[in-house]
Amino acid sequence: MLNNNDICANDQLIQAEVQSWDYVLSYVLPSCIKCAIELGIPDVLHKNANPIMSLSDLVANLPNLNPSKASFIPILMRILVHSGLFNYHQQQGDGYSLTGVGRLLLEDDPFSKRSFFLFAEHPVVLNTTVSVSNWLRDDLPTAFETAHGKSHWDYCAEEPEFSGFFDNAMTSDSRLISNLLISDCCKGVFEGLTSLVDVGGGTGTVAMAIANAFPSLKSIVLDLPHVIGDRKGTGNLEFIAGSMFDKIPHANAILLKWILHNWSDQDCVKLLKKCKESIPSKEKGGKVIIIEIVMEDNNSNGSNLFKHNT
Ligand SMILES: C[S@@+](CC[C@H](N)C(=O)[O-])C[C@H]1O[C@@H](n2cnc3c(N)ncnc32)[C@H](O)[C@@H]1O
C-alpha cells in the first residue's frame, strides 16, 4: 500500500519522466520543420487557391514525395500543427492552413526565416553542437574547430555549399533588421553620416538598405574574399574584400551586426580598436553601431531566448 510520501515521490518521478522525454525528443521539431520545408509543404499550402487545403490535396501536390510514404504525412502535420506552424481544420475534412509563424517558412516571404532553419539543421552545424563537451575538454578556441578541424570562416572559404547556407541564413535575418534600421524609430542613427562601413557585412543586405534609404551616405561592405566574390557595388554602395583585423576603410561610422559574439574578448578589443582607428578624429558624429543577439533567461518555452540588442 502506498503512503502519502510515496504518492508525492511518484508524482515527482512521473513529472520528471515527462519532462525528460521533452528533452530527449526536442530534436524532433527542428527536423520536422526542415523536412516540411524540403518537401515544399508551406509553399504548397500558400499557393493553394483555397486557404484551407485538404490532406489528400496536399499529399497529391507535394512534388518530391514518394507515394509509398504518403501515409506518414499526417504524423508530420500533427507535430507541426501542435507546434503552431500550421492550423488544422477538422470541420473542413482534415484541412490545413498556414499560421503566422508558418508563413516565415515560405520561400518568397520577404521576412522568410526558411534559410535559418535549414542552416541550423545542416549536418555541419549539428556536428558542431554535439562537439561542445569535447571542446570544453580540449584547447581549441571554438567548438567548430573541435568538430571540423578548422575555423568556421576557413571552412566556409573551402566549402561553398555550406558557405551558401550560412550566408543565406544571415541574409534572411538582415532583411528584417534592415527594415527596422531604416524605419522612423531607428533612422535617426544614420542621419548626418556621410560614410559607413558594414564590417563583416556578409552579402550586403543591410548596407544596401542603408544606401538606398540615405542616398548621400556612402555604404561600404567589408567581408572576407569568399563572401564578397565578384559582387559589385552601384552608386553609393561599395564591396571590399579583406580582413577586418588587417584594415578597415575610413568612414565616419562603423556597423557591426552579429560580429562580436563570434570572437574572443581579446579579438573584440583588437577589432574595436581597429574600428575606432578607421574613424578619422576630425570626423564629427563618428560612431560604432553594434547590433548583437543576446540570450534572455525568461523561463519561457525558448521562443524568446534570442533577441536583438542594439
Ligand atoms: C555572423 S556573420 C554576420 C554577417 C552580417 N553582419 C549579418 O548580420 O547578416 C559574420 C560575418 O563576418 C565575416 N567575417 C569573419 N571573419 C572576418 C574577417 N576577418 N574580416 C571580415 N569579415 C569577416 C563572415 O564572413 C560573416 O559574413
Automatic annotation (TrEMBL):
PROSITE patterns: SAM_OMT_II. The keyword Methyltransferase applies. Residues 133-300 form the O-methyltransferase C-terminal domain. Pfam families: Dimerisation, Methyltransf_2. Residues 21-107 form the O-methyltransferase dimerisation domain. Keywords: Methyltransferase, S-adenosyl-L-methionine, Transferase. The keyword Lipid biosynthesis does not apply. Belongs to the class I-like SAM-binding methyltransferase superfamily. Cation-independent O-methyltransferase family. COMT subfamily. This is Uncharacterized protein. The lineage of its organism: Eukaryota, Viridiplantae, Streptophyta, Embryophyta, Tracheophyta.
